[in-house]
Design a protein that fits this description.
Alpha-Beta Plaits, Four Helix Bundle (Hemerythrin (Met), subunit A), alpha+beta, 3 domains, Formiminotransferase-cyclodeaminase, Chain B, domain 1, 568 residues
Length: 568
């Protein structure tokens, strides 16, 4: 059973009393634990702007209903969190919970659930078909609405450090939060499971945790936490008891054995059902579809005289994935979301097939920018340049980790890479936020105001929105400068064969700083708060000055090392 993810939706029905005559929602209020922070009108439905994170923790208990219920109750006890789904399997002896809410509420709920699991689950007695290493096996945080992968990275770090300190459990950061390339994939961390890790932690330097003691907790085991994007947990059950058949089918679809690039898979025994299972994670379901994996498994199973008799989706699934499968099997001339009656009349959900700027391909984003519209504009492009510059720093440091010649700098490069990855994630989020901030300013200018009181309120909201429109590119400047500082050790000590990439990173990051500065300054001209304007102008000037000095330092290092290469 692999960790599921949910579609990017909120509850479709607006609370009573919040609809105005125009159909827009007034007075943002908490609803089912999710704070509505604004809305925009689309052609067919109201689309909410919310700040929501999803958490999908996996616990090593799938048989004791009392323990499973206690974990669920702990999650539900946290105000501002909504428990969406609970899945458990006796053969796997594993349970998966899906809940959403504002970031801090979600972290609190994860702690509450983990406290119960640590108290009630004993890994010394645990047996099950699914790989595991701890009572609280893995706790992923996923950005949904109004949040970025960078925020989730920071949240996972906070959770991991706090959980390790409270329960004396070794904690590993994985996926986007990973501090080492080999830890990006959870199976690499969990290899050998609880039993082998009990022997290796403390003895094998590659098993040293990111937080907590360098030894296994005998009762609670070890835990992984991290930030990741949504995935689909999809299982296929075969009418045979030969687990080797399931393993062969898993090999056919799994990336590491020559299958689909975005699929993880294992073959498992289901003794209680008298079947075997091919259990898969589709980690990029927009590129590898459910039906593609299913058809390959069907064909592979036929070679052994078996067939897929049932499938299951663990947790929740985005609508687009179901539409893709429906389109494949029904082969309609045309099928899109607008043809589904239920979705046509239900308001309040985002278009699940609509991409954010950060989800677009380079061509798509370039096309979005070239349109004769105000957004995405220079602020979003500046943030994108910062994200690309940060990515180059990550690349250079990532190429400076393996081999004897990098042994002395490996930890430094790991730290720089991880810190810069956080900045990259934040900058990707700022690509979206910059456009949203501009749209909010325009919306405030369009507010109707007839009475003096209404005019004052309108002006107040314009000022607040304009301040936010200045703060977003200012944050782009800050994040880009942080990444630019990290380009210094990358250029100075990193893999010499990638030194020019560090130079390109410096150019891109400085362009991001100076480009974002223009957007800050243009908004400051419309802000009446003189103390804020003065303070912000000073910060802008300081960031540009420091940025130029740091860029020059990086380029000097690049030139020096290029000469060294030429002389070799």
């Amino acid at each position: 059973m692999f960790s599921p993810l949910m579609p990017l939706t909120t509850d479709p029905i607006p609370p009573k009393g919040l609809q105005s005559s125009s159909g827009l929602w007034n007075n943002p209020k908490p609803f089912f634990g999710v704070a509505f922070v604004g809305c925009i009108r689309s052609d067919k439905r109201v689309t909410l702007k919310v700040k929501v994170i999803e958490c999908v923790p996996n616990f090593s208990e799938g048989r004791d209903k009392e323990v499973i219920d206690a974990i669920g109750d702990a999650i539900k006890s946290v105000e501002g969190v909504r428990l969406l789904d609970v899945e458990f399997d006796p053969d796997h002896n594993r349970s998966v919970f899906t809940f959403i809410g504002a970031p801090e509420n979600v972290k609190e709920a994860a702690h509450e659930a983990a406290d119960v699991a640590v108290e009630k689950i004993d890994m010394r007695e645990h047996k099950g078909g699914h790989p595991r290493m701890g009572a609280v096996d893995v706790v992923p945080f996923i950005p949904l609405h109004g949040t970025t992968i960078g925020e989730c990275i920071e949240l996972s770090k906070e959770f991991g450090e706090e959980f390790a300190a409270k329960h004396d459990v070794p904690v590993y950061l994985y996926a986007e939060s990973a501090t080492r390339p080999e830890r990006e994939e959870l199976p690499n961390i969990r290899q050998g499971e609880y039993e082998l890790l009990s022997e290796k932690i403390g003895e094998d330097s590659t098993k040293e945790p990111d937080f907590g003691p360098n030894k296994i907790n005998p009762k609670a085991g070890a835990t992984a936490t991290g930030a990741r994007h949504y995935l689909i947990a999809f299982n296929m059950n075969l009418n045979t008891t030969d687990v080797e058949v399931a393993k062969e089918c898993a090999n056919a679809v799994r990336a590491t054995t020559g299958g689909f690039v975005y699929v993880q898979g294992i073959g498992l025994d289901l003794p209680e059902k008298g079947m075997v299972q091919v259990s898969c994670n589709l980690i990029h379901p927009k590129r590898t579809k459910i039906h593609q994996v299913l058809e390959v498994v069907k064909n592979e199973a036929k070679r052994f005289g078996a067939t897929v008799v049932e499938t299951e989706i663990i947790g929740m699934v985005p609508l687009f994935a179901l539409l893709d499968a429906l389109d494949y099997y029904l082969q309609p001339e045309r099928l899109d979301e607008d043809m589904i009656l239920d979705l046509y009349y239900l308001g309040g959900t985002d278009d699940p097939t609509e991409k954010s700027f950060s989800e677009m391909s380079l061509i798509e984003f370039s096309d979005a920018v070239r349109r004769a519209r105000a957004t995405p504009g220079g602020g979003s492009v500046a943030a994108a340049m910062g994200a690309f510059g940060s990515a180059l720093v990550c690349m250079v440091t990532g190429l400076s980790l393996t081999g004897r010649k990098f042994a002395a700098i490996k930890q430094e490069m790991l730290d720089v890479r991880h810190d810069t990855e956080t900045e990259r994630g934040e900058l990707m989020g700022l690509v979206e936020e910059d456009s949203e901030a501009f749209d909010q300013v325009m919306a405030k200018y369009k507010m109707k105001a007839e009475s003096e009181e209404e005019k004052k309120e309108k002006e107040k909201q314009i000022q607040e929105a304009t301040k936010n429109a200045a703060e977003v590119p200012l944050e782009t400047m800050r994040r880009s400068y942080n990444a630019l500082e990290n380009a210094v050790p990358a250029a100075k000590k990193g893999n010499i064969n990638a030194v020019t990439d560090a130079g390109v990173a410096a150019h891109a990051l400085m362009a991001a700083i100076e480009g974002a500065a223009l957007n800050v300054r243009i908004n400051l001209d419309s802000i009446e708060d003189e103390s804020y304007v003065k303070k912000t102008r000073k910060e802008v000037e300081d960031l540009i000055e420091k940025g130029k000095e740091t860029k020059a330092e990086v380029l000097e290092l690049v030139e020096k090392r290029m000469k060294e290469m030429a002389e070799q």
